[in-house]
């Protein structure tokens, strides 16, 4: 169990790009003995590249599918079956995703302005996380 805890701690420290002082403070907060802290920091520093590769590999295992292409169109919905006069802008987003077996799949979404803004915000958050975890 203790090895699992340190493994998780090392992954967090690398993914958050903590420096030695921050790691030391965290270990002291967890009541780790001082002589062990130096050893753990040495281990972390010597294995940082290996841990970063493992984090990248873990992220890749979530899904082997990846975005190949995308297209978007703007439509103006003038009416619906419930409302005679609508004039609502809609974005048609077409994502082409390649699966692990090299087959392509089209994903088509019809998004209102609010939904599009939410999607863009989520994609910005994903990008920030990706940049943070990049090697």
Radius of gyration: 23 Å
Span between N and C termini?
28 Å
Going across the biggest sheet, name each strand in turn.
1-2-3
Global mean pLDDT: 86
Count of individual beta strands: 3
Taken as a percent bin, the fraction of beta residues is 15-25%
The main pleated sheet reads as: 3 strands, antiparallel
General shape: elongated
The secondary structure category is alpha+beta
What is the H/E order? Answer: HHHEEEH
- Residue stretches low in confidence (pLDDT < 50, at least 5 long) are none
The percent of residues in helical segments reads 40-55%
Number of helices: 4
Structure described in brief:
The chain is an alpha+beta fold and about 140 residues long. The protein has helices at about 1-15, 20-30, 35-60, 115-135; strands at about 65-75, 90-100, 105-110.
Structure description:
This protein is of the alpha+beta class and about 140 residues long. About 55% of the residues lie in helices and about 25% in strands. It is built from four helices and three strands. It has helices spanning about 1-15, 20-30, 35-60, 115-135, and strands at about 65-75, 90-100, 105-110. Strand 2 (about 90-100) and strand 3 form a beta hairpin. The protein is elongated, with a radius of gyration of 23 Å. The mean pLDDT is about 85.
List keywords for this structure.
4 helices, alpha+beta, 3-stranded antiparallel β-sheet, single chain, 3 strands, 135 residues
Sequence-ordered SSE layout with sheet pairings:
Elements: H1 2-15, H2 20-29, H3 34-60, E1 66-77, E2 88-98, E3 104-112, H4 113-133
Antiparallel strand pairs: 1-2, 2-3
Helix pairs in contact: 1-3, 2-3
């Amino acid at each position: 169990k203790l090895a699992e805890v340190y493994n998780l701690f090392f992954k967090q420290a690398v993914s958050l790009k903590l420096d030695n002082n921050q790691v030391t403070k965290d270990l002291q907060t967890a009541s780790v003995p001082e002589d062990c802290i130096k050893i753990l920091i040495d281990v972390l520093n010597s294995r940082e590249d290996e841990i970063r590769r493992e984090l990248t590999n873990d992220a890749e295992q979530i899904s082997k599918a990846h975005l190949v292409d995308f297209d978007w169109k703007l439509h103006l919905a003038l009416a619906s079956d419930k409302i005679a006069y609508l004039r609502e802008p809609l974005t048609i987003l077409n994502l082409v995703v390649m699966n692990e077996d090299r087959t392509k799949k089209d994903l088509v979404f019809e998004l209102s302005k609010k939904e599009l803004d939410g999607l863009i915000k989520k994609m910005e958050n994903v990008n920030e996380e990706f940049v943070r975890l990049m090697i």
